Amino acid sequence: MRIDIITVLPELLEGFVNNSILQRAQKKQLVEIHIHNLRDYTKDKHRRVDDYPFGGFAGMVMQCQPIDDCITALKAQRHYDEIIFTTPDGAQFDQPMANELSLLQNIIILCGHYKGIDYRIREHLITREVSIGDYVLTGGEIAAAAMADAIVRLVPGVLSDEQSALSDSFQDNLLAAPVYTRPADYKGWRVPDVLLSGHEAKIKEWELQQSLERTRKLRPDLLEAK
Ligand code: SAM
Fold it and tell me: Which of 32, 120, 132, 157 could staple 2 via S-S, CB 3.0–4.6 A?
């Protein structure tokens, strides 16, 4: 899988994509992540990518030309399955969307800034608009980082134990069961006996019961969606 991220703040993302799971995925050659500085595509001699909005509104708007040129240059090299714009009014990013996107070959994630991007880009070039929640961030970089992380960990072979991703929260519309590690008794706080029993079937049953109970209590909406 290949993810191309377009941003005016590449330095914000470089540390993130070159650490932890994203770094491991790239080292294993399962995923390529490329960050593009939008300013490299502007024709403005001061490397500006924004201008005042028509209508006299407040704030600045990212212009069509650099975004169009960057996306066009990428599209000339390969087919993209999705060209995603991060935006608070987009569809809510969630685990089913992460699952779906992890199956794609090539995606572009465009990070907005300022008041956002010229709407014509959204109408003519963007294939999908995605929000990471009902709040407004300063730029799309945190959204792109969150999406890339959630997607890449689902690409087969990225996690050393694939079962681990399957038992995470939201897979199967359930919250994950609690997890414990050594020591089995810490200051009298004991790990549930069943987890020390070595009885695989009973442990699986306990895990499912815990998942259902926690989902019922904390996120009943997920069970309704099942
Ligand atoms: N004026 C825009 C609005 O009200 O929808 C918000 C602009 S915001 C300050 C700048 C950029 O941050 C957006 O274009 C988008 O790329 C990104 N952004 C902000 N909040 C986001 C969210 N919840 N999810 C995804 N991207 C977000």
Answer: 32
